[in-house]
Amino acid sequence: MEPAMLNPAYAIINLLLWFFFLFFFLTPILRRYALNKARETLIRMIEQRRKSRVITLIHRQESVGFFGIPLIRYINIEDSEQVLRAIRLTPPDMPIDLIIHTPGGLALASTQIANALVKHKGPVRVIIPHYAMSGGTLIALAADEIIMDPNAVLGPVDPQLQGIPAASIIKVLEKKELKDVDDQTIIMADVAEKAIEQMVNYVKWLLMENGMDREKAERIALELATGKYTHDFPLGVEKLRELGLNISTEIPEEVYQLMDLYPQPMGAQVPSVQYIPIPYGTRQSS
After folding, report:
1. Using one digit for the tens of pLDDT, what is the confidence trace for 157-193?
2. Contact 143/165 with Cβ under 8 angstroms?
3. Which among 132, 116, 135 has a CA at the least distance from the CA of 124?
């Protein structure tokens, strides 16, 4: 008996289903690849025009995941590892342009990035198209020049302990008698005092490393790190200049174009830190 012949209609439907599944799975991959190449091309263009190493540190924490769950993104150890590697691949005298868009993140990771930037011998410029809060502000303070959109903002760098402002924990001891405060709060207040003192001293050191005089650096550190403002309070260009920070509003147009290539991701995350992953020699003017 001859085997039953395959129904032609069934074969066509089966083939179409395979094409559909291939299209469904390959399209996002191809789209991400094209987007990544477009970013690299624009990063290279900015580097050539500014004769600098361009690094991006961009978080889209407002995004919503596949099941409708917010994907909170912030500065973490992986980010600091990647930024530090980019800096190591940069000649000591080459300028660095760090484009940053972030709600903040881990103090350890932010401090590592700030340390590496302030020790870089070439000019360091931190470019902020929209906002850089908390740890992002700490990184910006390590720059020789902060370049912001006229409407962009930084934020206070006062320490937070388990999501609670350190300054507010200390205030509990000021408002209550010690006998009315539990041991856990007393311990937290002790840690909070240390955290604020450490942050004030660190910010002061960062600013003085970039040539600011001690009195001015201490005034800025006390303003930003002691809990004078709520942690999410936006500090605009005028306020930052009033404090004495070196702020420019001349953001290159290409930076805005680059930000357009970082749309809010729906599902799979995009890399936060990006740069051309090769060592640089001294770039000759073309």
Report:
1. 999 999 999 999 999 988 888 888 899 999 999 999 9
2. no
3. 116
